[in-house]
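User: Run a structure prediction on this.
Assistant: Running it now.
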Amino acid sequence: MFQLLKFIFFYCGLPLADVGTDFNTFLTLGDDGQAWWATLTLSWMFVPVFIRLATFIYLSMRHMCDSENRVTSEVMLAFFKEVILHLPFFFPLHNLYIANKLRKLRYGKKSFDASNSARVEAIISEVAKSSFLESYFEAGGQATLQLIIIL
């Protein structure tokens, strides 16, 4: 049970708090008349979306030119879902959905079936990868921007 609560806290609660405080900073800067800084703060929230969208377009174009590796509509839909996932406030909601899947597998409980370990590991790995991309593309730029604002 503790493992599932830890998952919910780290992959749902913290991203929601991060996006919420970023949006609050945007609103506060806007109310203070700092339109330039407010726009930059809001823009950093969407950098992961833009990077995933650019990757999606690049891979689609590359596969369109390659006659042997045509992209199927299922692959494009799956990749487009990743783009949508990185929209602000969608990531924590997605992770709550994933936490429900883990709960149904009885992850973190004594009655957990060890044959589901590979599925659980794949699910957690996918969420960790998305979380890494989110923090890597967003947090560094925001931290730099906020240090510039403070200094």
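Residues 117-150 form the longest helix (34 residues).
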